[in-house]
């Protein structure tokens, strides 16, 4: 397995940022700049996405998790705070379940414990059909609009689409299959590290029942619900997002 490309800045305790479906390390540019004042921030590109678009995508959440832990092992990172967004939150749960001693704190952002998401804005099977029919660029333009409360007019929408367009079609399809096959509910009770669940109350991908399952199932958990925000909270309300994270990480 080839080492993943990544963005890295700062010194101090390590903070790892894992992007979600049709995302990339570049979506965390502001967070990297801000948190690198006090932390060693590492943001990988998942196989097939962002700067890793020339590589085949992984067909399982566990495979994506192994790609990230391999990178961290090669960088000599033994312990870290781990944040996962959307599909990246599934990957983060997988890493935390398999390497509980390595994950000092866990942040599950806009995600849930089940990959086949109930009440998603559209079924994963429909997304798969439309990726095949429309291609990646049209898919991220369409899906990305659902990640903001203000849709295509939202601040950050254009940058999100630009990053998502880089994904290769095979990886986009493989990731949908990976999410559909993944279920992390049985592992929640074993996630003993301090955990923050953060969610925008207008998120159309991960509805409240998913968030509630995380909140009730993880033993040492805090919940932050942000009003008037959707799935791309870090772009919609960046100052509030970073303040919430900093309070928890400290």
Automatic annotation (TrEMBL):
<dbReference type="GO" id="GO:0016787">
    <property type="term" value="F:hydrolase activity"/>
</dbReference>
<dbReference type="InterPro" id="IPR029058">
    <property type="entry name" value="AB_hydrolase_fold"/>
</dbReference>
<keyword id="KW-0378">Hydrolase</keyword>
<feature type="domain" description="AB hydrolase-1">
    <location>
        <begin position="15"/>
        <end position="243"/>
    </location>
</feature>
<dbReference type="Pfam" id="PF12697">
    <property type="entry name" value="Abhydrolase_6"/>
</dbReference>
<protein>
    <submittedName>
        <fullName>Alpha/beta hydrolase</fullName>
    </submittedName>
</protein>
<dbReference type="InterPro" id="IPR050266">
    <property type="entry name" value="AB_hydrolase_sf"/>
</dbReference>
<dbReference type="InterPro" id="IPR000073">
    <property type="entry name" value="AB_hydrolase_1"/>
</dbReference>
